[in-house]
Amino acid sequence: MKAKKTKRVGKVIRGSESPLTLNPSNLPLVLVLMGSKSDWEVMRSADQALQDFGVAHECRVVSAHRSPALAAQLASGAEARGIEVIIAAAGGAAHLAGVIAAHTTLPVLGVPMKSDALNGLDSLLATVQMPAGIPVGTLAIGKAGATNAGLLAVAILSLARPELRDRLKSFRREQEKKILATVLD
Ligand code: AIR
Question: CATH classification of 2-180 is 3.40.50.1970, yes or no?
């Protein structure tokens, strides 16, 4: 299904052409944040997963270190805007997901970006090793993590949206069918 796209500086907003019954306003339900535009190539996979399920969302660049005030503002204002899940991706000293989680009680999913210096192990540890009390659900490094963050956001939203749960189940069935039909030549 094709989603509406609005581009602004450092920000992409995607509505859904078939808004979910429980989101008739079509306002973003998921906020996809990343530390730099250099993360976007990978984070497109989270964007794509959300688009595939028709979930309205907003993607934008914000850095825990380079724009800390904006990071705090986006996180603390998210709930009031109707956001239900936040995805935060960063590489290296990847503090974005943790900083975002410190400013909201919404579920925060962290995606560690592959880094040049340490192949993403630095990003993984910085994202996953949160102190008890402020959770970040950390996904795999890179593209698989980005896709799965989108899918996990869909799963969280589907708890209260049967329509979305049906789409998720049919996606799983299709995925399974492809594996079962695999022929090696
Ligand atoms: N980053 C940006 N602000 C804080 C951090 N940790 C991360 C970005 C990116 C990496 O630093 O998430 O993965 C390199 O960013 P850049 O802009 O130098 O390419």
Answer: yes
